UniProtKB/TrEMBL annotation, chain A:
The lineage of its organism: Bacteria, Pseudomonadati, Pseudomonadota, Gammaproteobacteria, Alteromonadales. GO terms for biological process: nitrate assimilation. Residues 319-383 form the NADH-rubredoxin oxidoreductase C-terminal domain. This is Nitrite reductase (NADH) large subunit. Binds 1 siroheme per subunit. Siroheme binds at C681. Its cofactor is [2Fe-2S] cluster; siroheme; FAD; [4Fe-4S] cluster. It comes from Pseudoalteromonas denitrificans DSM 6059. Residues 556-617 form the Nitrite/Sulfite reductase ferredoxin-like domain. It comes from the Bacteria. Residues 628-764 form the Nitrite/sulphite reductase 4Fe-4S domain. SUPFAM superfamilies: FAD/NAD(P)-binding domain, Nitrite and sulphite reductase 4Fe-4S domain-like, Nitrite/Sulfite reductase N-terminal domain-like. Belongs to the nitrite and sulfite reductase 4Fe-4S domain family. [4Fe-4S] cluster binds at C637, C643, C677, C681. Residues 419-461 form the BFD-like [2Fe-2S]-binding domain.
UniProtKB/TrEMBL annotation, chain B:
Keywords: Nitrate assimilation, Oxidoreductase. PANTHER family: NITRITE REDUCTASE (NADH) SMALL SUBUNIT (PTHR40562:SF1), PTHR40562. The keyword Oxidoreductase applies. This is Assimilatory nitrite reductase (NAD(P)H) small subunit. The keyword Oxidoreductase applies. One of its GO terms (biological process) is nitrate assimilation. Residues 11-115 form the Rieske-like [2Fe-2S] domain. One of its GO terms (molecular function) is nitrite reductase [NAD(P)H] activity. InterPro entries: NirD, Rieske-like_NirD, Rieske_2Fe-2S_sf. NCBIfam families: nirD_assim_sml (TIGR02378).
Length: 845, 123
């Protein structure tokens, strides 16, 4: 064995133990990690455990798999409960009898549900709510049950109650205290929550001490309460709090807190320097943290400590926001007004069922805590005031009164250090940095910062923050497309057109600086194509194109490409269908019908593309421009030729339109559809350009969008004849091509156009700018200069030179490997690439 | 019994001709079973060479990225997920932990050469 590597044993593979493994690997430290876990499965998302009852499977909840661990070099043993720690000789022994040596030991044993010592608590249908196994047991038990009782009215108890209600049981919650969620809420908040939950059909019994669980008369059991009352039930679910799983620490003499919990210092070290404890089993400054975010911070702390870093754990905020059976509840900081001198403001609305309380310090300048029931829309704002010590407005109550616009204030004032996602330690500054490096979409920001991929609680805050940061830039920051040009796309378009610039080199020499980048190059490439419609792989233009445009195909995750021939309007002859099938078979391509009514062939290596296209072009196919920011498809319905309701020939119209605008380069992709009657089978109203047949002609809808932010198209004009329809579309599209920003779909463009739809109608229908003639001419030039890029390419030996993997060898990229799934190929995973017998042999064609 | 020993030596290897390079763009060469992406920055008449494997996208694609400059650093942007890799240091600008290997290059008599470590088997 390699002696240089630190041997790390992790006991427990809950959320925190797993996060530790990930954090440790991320440090790059040479180490050998072994995970020992008592559960039968590896880490899963306990926070979203309840979703198991709304359809999620154990696989959906899994945070990792054995395959992944193995691929990362992490050893693991499931069903392996550790029962002994030998601190002196540094090994642990598990229930299987196996021993494991460690240099560093990490206890991530979590906690277990506390079951109050009530006689009869150990019967078959008395259960707890913590693991997937528990949930399976509840499921089984509920099948033969009518009534269920949850003992404990805290946060988890209510979640459990919701679960058994979803399973169709008559549901009761029994709480010993006078109110629900006594930790997080005050009396008034607890009362409102109780009313709301009862209104949903769950019976809440407060101030009830259960004394014994006996055999029932009507049900399986009956609970006898201290006040003499009785409740019959078939199922008992204990949710009376959690206790740190500290037995190992106790048995083998690590320091424990008075009421349990493994004592740790700021380095998360226990009383033995080589043993760490993290997550719910750890006790820091006499506190247990029963949430994932603090546990994750502890995990990162230990990874840093072991790899020689200096991260420490300095406590965590325990504020919570949740939705219980559809009731919104939030609690921040000092909810119980315990800080000396603290005062509070309250707002209660019995009509709408909203309760809000603000706890402020003595001079009313700072927010100490808050309680929100029924409406948590202010939670993010308030939390930021509390966490970042932001000065409250002059009248703090404005923050909780209806119509308060507190959010605006807080977001822009947030310091860069403000914590946005505590699970992954992402601050506002990190988000700003991500945006600075070019991430402008929420999804990109999530991907590069990991924000919002833990408990998910910060999703709304993340979105508002991103929106705000982007918004402030939109207003104050210039519209420069990148560091090389101090112009917006619209301005560049104007320069190119007016100065008749035909190459990137000229443009950057005269109007920009540096060598360009992946933002300005494709933008300029697209503008040059819109204005001059040159072959896009002309030598000068080639380096401007994104890989998809360079290779006239769409790159897939493994570096192969997809091939999408144009199938205008979705109409295809049997002969052509057969060609597609034959080509796919010959080159072993995966085939699929796309969402755009055509056929996509996947898995082509770069050097195969010209061969494949040669065959397709020979058979009469043209490029489908699936790779370009250009016209994609014109979707059609079958229309009056076949359909008994159709009033016009929608297929012929769709074919006309697709053939007219194919090849048009634009700021973003453009999609059309044509429906043969108002039943709208082609979904035209969700397209950039939508055409719907009427008895008298065509209705034109504009600027619809599917995708991430769907938008219904706006009705632009009605009952148009064929000629006017084309004239309007020419003008609308060309005006869009000239004035939209980079990667702006028509939907967003219209929404940001000053004057909106009315203005667009004035420009196009009333010709208010005296421009339509020019727009139409420009479009006609594009239509007239159309060429199939693939045809041009295969006829041009120097272009073909680009389509090879290696300049100096005919070998193929050996990292591209496929396995078989549902009788077709799919890319092999990293692990599958190791198992050579599973791989499909690559045949040379 | 025969023993085989492996020695590492550094060597200039000719990869292709100068006119195989594509102005302001990339090509890929296979050297000693290693995929190397070569970029030709026309303005500076300079060739840059890095490993072709994108450590984030996990595929051999870097030569198909767009060449550019960010804060005066010459970079390629991955065609898969757009991260920038410095052609000078190999560092990924968006992810501290990701790096590609950089090779020295030169053009001699129209021949593009890359300096590379080769394994020599010594019997
Ligand atoms: C292949 C296809 C999925 C399929 O198997 O059906 C597909 C595949 C891709 N879509 Fe799509 N979209 C496909 C139909 C759609 C549709 C449905 C439609 O066109 O009716 C939509 C919603 C309609 C719309 O666009 O309004 C759609 C909305 C998107 C979006 C979101 C656009 C938006 O405005 O929100 C993206 C992302 C983007 O463009 O930035 C996207 C991006 C992509 C990309 C380019 C993502 C990427 O970079 O790899 C995929 C590559 C295509 C490829 O490799 O060939 N795809 N995509 C469909 C190809 C249609 C075709 O024949 O050309
Ligand atoms: C229904 C539910 C909802 C929740 N909702 C939220 C929420 O919205 N937000 C939030 O922040 N938190 C929430 N939590 C709490 C959150 O799940 C916990 O804080 C977190 O899972 C703790 O992680 P952990 O790794 O410390 O412990 P655990 O997840 O308990 O993992 C410990 C693991 O160690 C194993 N183990 C114990 N002893 C041994 C041993 N001797 N040998 C080997 N293995 C051992 C256990 O079997 C277990 O698998 C929720 C919890 C539940 C149950
Ligand atoms: S939109 Fe109208 S014509 Fe077209 S298929 Fe549907 S019902 Fe028939
Ligand atoms: S706070 Fe948990 S995912 Fe962001």
């Amino acid at each position: 064995m390699d002696n240089n590597k630190t041997k790390i044993i992790v006991i427990g593979n809950g959320m925190v133990g797993h996060h530790f493994v990930e954090s440790m690997l991320a440090t790059g430290e040479a180490c050998e990690i072994t995970v020992l876990c008592a559960e039968s499965r590896l880490a899963y998302d306990r926070v979203h455990l309840s979703e198991y009852f709304s359809g999620k499977t154990a696989e959906d909840l899994a945070l990792t798999t054995g395959e992944q661990y193995t691929a990362l070099g992490v050893k693991y043993v499931t069903n392996e409960k550790v029962i002994e720690i030998n601190k002196k000789q540094k090994f642990v022994t598990a229930s299987s009898g196996q021993s494991y040596i460690y240099d560093k030991l990490v206890l991530a044993t979590g906690s277990y549900p506390f079951v109050p010592p009530i006689p009869g608590n150990d019967q078959e249908h008395c259960l707890v709510y913590r693991t997937i196994d528990d949930l399976e047991a509840i499921n089984r038990s509920a099948k033969s049950a009518k009534v269920g009782v949850v003992i404990g009215g805290g946060l988890l108890g209510l979640e459990a109650a919701n679960a058994i209600k979803q399973l169709g049981l008559e549901t009761h919650v029994v709480e010993f205290a006078p109110q629900l969620m006594a930790v997080q809420l005050d009396e008034a908040g607890g009362q409102l929550l109780k009313d709301k939950i009862e209104a949903l059909g769950v019976t809440v019994h407060t101030q009830k001490a259960t004394q014994v669980i006996e055999q029932g008369d009507k049900c399986r059991y009956k609970l006898l309460f201290a006040d003499g009352s009785i409740l019959e039930t078939d199922l008992v679910l204990f949710s009376a709090g959690i206790r740190p799983q500290d037995k190992l620490a106790k048995d083998f003499n690590l320091a424990l807190g008075e009421r349990g919990g493994i004592v740790i210092n700021d380095n998360c070290q226990t009383s033995d320097d080589d043993i760490f404890a993290i997550g719910e089993c750890a006790l820091w400054q006499n506190r247990i943290f029963g949430l994932v975010a603090p546990g994750y911070t502890m995990a990162r702390t230990v990874a840093s400590q072991i790899s020689g870093g200096s991260l420490t754990f300095t406590g965590a905020d325990m504020s919570t926001k949740l939705k219980l059976m559809g009731v919104e509840v939030g609690s921040i900081g000092d909810a119980h007004v315990k800080t000396p001198g603290a005062k509070y403001y309250g707002y209660e609305n019995q009509v709408t069922g909203v309760y809000k309380k603000l706890v402020v310090n003595e001079d009313q300048k700072k927010l100490l805590g808050a309680v929100l029931v029924g409406d948590t829309s202010d939670y993010d704002t308030l939390l930021q005031y509390a966490l970042n010590d932001i000065d409250l407005p002059e009248f703090p109550e404005a923050l909780i009164l209806p119509q308060a616009s507190g959010l605006e204030v807080a977001m822009t004032e947030l310091p860069d250090s403000a914590m946005i996602c505590s699970c992954h330690n992402v601050t506002k500054g990190d988000i700003v940095a991500a945006i600075d490096t070019g991430a402008t979409e929420l999804s990109q920001i999530k991907q590069c910062t990991k924000a919002s991929s833990g408990c998910g609680g910060c999703a709304a805050l993340l979105k508002t923050t991103v929106d705000k940061v982007l918004e402030t830039r939109g207003v104050t920051v210039k519209q420069d497309i990148c560091e090389h040009f101090a112009y917006s796309r619209k301005q560049l378009f104007h320069i190119i057109q007016v100065e008749k610039i035909r190459s990137f080199a000229t443009l950057i020499a005269e109007h920009g600086k540096g060598h360009g980048c992946e933002i300005c190059k494709p933008t300029v490439g697209s503008i040059l194509a819109s204005v001059w419609n040159d072959y896009i792989l002309k030598q000068d233009h080639q380096p401007l194109q994104d890989t998809n445009d360079t290779y006239l195909a769409n790159m897939q995750k493994d570096g192969t490409y997809s091939v999408v021939p144009r199938i205008a309007a979705g109409e295809i002859t049997p002969d052509k269908l057969i060609v597609l099938g034959e080509v796919a078979k010959k080159y072993q391509l995966y085939t699929k019908i796309t969402g755009g009514q055509r056929i996509d062939l996947f898995g082509a290596r770069v050097e195969q593309l010209p061969l494949i296209w040669q065959e397709l072009v020979n058979a009469g196919f043209e490029t489908g421009h699936a790779y370009g920011k250009s016209l994609r498809t014109v979707k059609s319905c079958v229309g009056s030729t076949w359909c008994r309701y159709g009033v016009q020939d929608s297929i012929a119209k769709a074919l006309d339109l697709e053939n007219r605008y194919k090849g048009l380069r634009s700021p973003h992709k453009i999609k059309f559809a044509v429906s043969g009657c108002t039943r709208e089978c082609a979904e035209a109203q969700s397209k950039d350009i939508g055409v719907i047949a009427t008895e008298n002609g065509w209705n034109l809808y504009v600027c619809g969008n599917g995708g991430m932010k769907p938008r219904h198209g706006d009705l632009f004009a009605t009952d148009l004849d064929d000629k006017t329809l084309i004239k309007y579309i020419d003008c609308i599209l060309m005006f869009y091509v000239r004035t939209a920003e980079r990667l702006q779909r028509t939907s967003v463009w219209l929404e940001q156009l000053d004057g909106g739809l009315e203005y667009l109608k004035q420009v196009v229908i009333d010709d208010s700018l005296n421009l339509t003639h020019e727009l139409e001419n420009q479009m006609q030039d594009i239509v007239d200069s159309y060429q199939c890029e693939w045809k041009t390419t295969i006829e041009n030996p120097s272009s073909l030179k680009r389509f090879r993997q290696f300049v100096n060898s005919d070998d193929i990229d050996s990292n591209i490997q496929f396995v078989s799934e549902r009788s077709q190929i799919r890319p092999a995973t990293d692990v599958e690439k190791q198992i050579t017998t599973k791989l499909i042999p690559i045949v040379e064609v | 019994m025969k023993t085989t020993q492996t020695n590492l030596t550094t060597n200039w290897q000719t990869v292709c001709q100068q006119n195989d390079l594509v102005n302001d763009s990339g090509i890929c060469a296979l050297i000693e079973n290693q995929q190397i992406a070569l970029f030709y920055l026309k303005g500076k008449e300079q060739v840059f060479a890095i490993t072709n494997y994108d450590p984030i996208g996990r595929a051999n694609v870097l030569y198909r990225g767009i060449l550019g400059c960010i804060n005066n650093d010459i970079v390629v942007s991955s065609p898969l997920y757009k991260q920038h890799f410095s052609l000078v240091s190999g560092q990924c600008l968006q992810d501290e932990k990701s790096k590609v290997t950089v090779f020295e290059t030169r053009i001699i008599n129209q021949e593009v050469q890359v300096k590379i470590q080769v394994q020599q088997k010594v019997a």
